Amino acid sequence: MTRPRIIGLTGSIGMGKSTVAEMFERAGVPVFDADAEVRAMQGAGGELIDAIEAEFPGSTGPNGVERDALGKLVFGDKTALARLEAIVHPAVARKREAFLIEHAGAPIVVFDIPLLFEKGGHEAVDSVVVVSAPAEVQRERVLARENMTPEKFAHILSLQVPDAEKRARADHVIDTGLALHETEAQVHNLIPKLAEAPRKD
């Protein structure tokens, strides 16, 4: 059975990745949003609540995972983080497989994965699209977010592959430092090229 070409969409914080993912969706391309799936599985009644509560007692409540409580338990603790990822990652993988089956007839699908390079996911996709903008635009966007500080921003950046390296490793780069309609035009122009890209398998 043929499968769609899988496009890995990634970009550092504040680069506009979610906006570009929406542009792909508007153009009719199915998008798998890994973060959204995790939020749903950790939300009220989510399928991961019991497993997370069992591993990290006191980290969930009526609305699902208490992000602050869980964050305090895993932040800076690599062993605890690995235990959490052992619960979350297989569940996301199952959702991704179901998504691929559901959209088996599509020419391309997009996997929206923030830490594509950091977690090695780039090896499992056919093409990598990196969303990028000038550093000063990125900084302005991120610092405008609620509860964001320059220190927090610097810490997040320290955990991510630098933008210049992402761009160098990408098959395609979408510039979001432009007007929205110009970025959307880049997305539309790219879709036919992605549909013709060679598969890795």
List keywords for this structure.
Rossmann fold; five-stranded parallel beta sheet; single chain; 9 helices; two-stranded antiparallel sheet; 201 residues; alpha/beta
List the helices and strands and how they pair.
Blueprint: E1 5-10, H1 17-26, E2 31-33, H2 34-42, H3 49-55, E3 60-61, E4 64-65, H4 67-74, H5 78-102, E5 108-112, E6 127-132, H6 135-143, H7 150-159, H8 163-169, E7 172-175, H9 180-196
Parallel strand pairs: 1-5, 1-6, 2-5, 6-7
Antiparallel strand pairs: 3-4
Number of domains: 2
Classify the helix fraction into a percent range: 40-55%
Shape: globular
Classify the secondary structure makeup into a structural class. alpha/beta
The CATH top-level class label of the largest domain: Alpha Beta
Could you describe the 3D structure shown?
By secondary structure, the chain is an alpha/beta fold. The protein folds into two domains: 1-30 and 108-201, Rossmann fold (3-Layer(aba) Sandwich); 43-102, no CATH class. The chain contains nine helices and seven strands; from the N terminus they run βαβααββααββαααβα. It has helices at residues 17-26, 34-42, 49-55, 67-74, 78-102, 135-143, 150-159, 163-169, 180-196, and strands at 5-10, 31-33, 60-61, 64-65, 108-112, 127-132, 172-175. The longest helix is centred in the middle third of the chain and has 25 residues, at 78-102. It is globular and about 50 Å long. The protein starts with a strand and ends in a 5-residue tail after the last helix.
